[in-house]
From TrEMBL:
NCBIfam families: pdi_dom. InterPro entries: PDI, PDI_thioredoxin-like_dom, Thioredoxin-like_sf, Thioredoxin_CS, Thioredoxin_domain. Keywords: Redox-active center, Repeat, Signal. Residues 25-121, 123-264, 270-390 form the Thioredoxin domain. This is Thioredoxin domain-containing protein 5. Belongs to the protein disulfide isomerase family. It comes from Polistes dominula (European paper wasp). Residues 1-28 form the signal peptide. It comes from the Eukaryota. The lineage of its organism: Eukaryota, Metazoa, Ecdysozoa, Arthropoda, Hexapoda.
Amino acid sequence: MATNLVNLFFFKKQIWLFLFMLSQVSSGHEDDIHTIQYTKETFLDEIKQKNSFVMFYAPWCGHCQRLGPIWAQLAEMFNERDDIIKIAKVDCTVDSTLCSEHDVTGYPTLKFFKVGESKGTKFRGTRDLPSLTTFISEQLGSLSKVEDDTPSPPEPVNGLSELTEESFNFHIRKGYHFVKFYAPWCGHCQKLAPTWEELANSLRNDDSVSISKVDCTLHRSVCEQFEIKGYPTLLWIEDGKKVDKYTGQRTHEDLKNYVSTMLEKSAEESTNKDESSDSTIHNVLSLTGDSFKYSVEKGISFVKFFAPWCGHCKRLAPTWEELGRKFFANEDVHIAKVDCTLNTCKQLCYEEEVDSFPTLYLYRNGRKVSEYNGSRNLDDLYGFVMNHLRSHDEL
């Protein structure tokens, strides 16, 4: 009897949890009013009319739920402007046949369908707003097509740019930016305002940095994207990515010194990167779509498929160079890398089924034999290659 009561208790608890999760999923979908829902009945007609970027998802999928707010922001950016592209989604628990037809084997799967074409191009990058907008621009053929239809930020007033939801991501996607996120009613923001204007004015002739501001009461999605919790928040952004949060004194002199420090730091890192590249050019082979097949056709080739913006790739880079140095004198082993963001490499990365960065594949005599998923320290990577080299010698 006691056992039955315990079982009944756990059964009811599981039912309650299931209903709770279902309610959470449902409420999350109700909040997204911008994304167009494609179905089996409407899908072909929709992709015939306009370019479509489609998220194939399942409501219970955790990754889909985390992507949801970003996808809604993307839809708000494009769908509200009657653009040349529509941001859409397909619920694979409802239209399973449609998802099967498009080879959806995991959630979420993101595919871009050019107008009139029934076969989509799969998105394989990180699922953040700058990466998604860049991917759209690339698929449309040139960045200018999207830029031309995107409202530009107003001309800077004495060096200060005021950004909006429509202009923010395109403005910050390249270069160095010091951005003030604020609310008009905030006392600290009001106190900082003249100093921020003075900073922008003093740097208005410096093309290496942009000083801007965002009103979070008007452009909430931008501030949510960067997880702004208080006002004012001052962020240093490089190529669309948050690099640092300023927490120092808010005098004109302190702010200007901070800008100089960050620019010098970025320039130094760029120089070190170039010097490192020059000194190790013979240790790690840089392959492209044209050179790949020839380069891996003999011996053991251990290849890193990466993207320059990927944090895990950046952390692996010096270790990968050391690994190349260890095998430099061994003619039977090639340590190589492929930058999947380059036009000459995108098709190669697609064909090699690179779904995340970094992806590490080992090839023997031109044939892919193994994917490395272990620890990325030098000893383990070296041991992995040596094990394959020994097994090859034993044959």
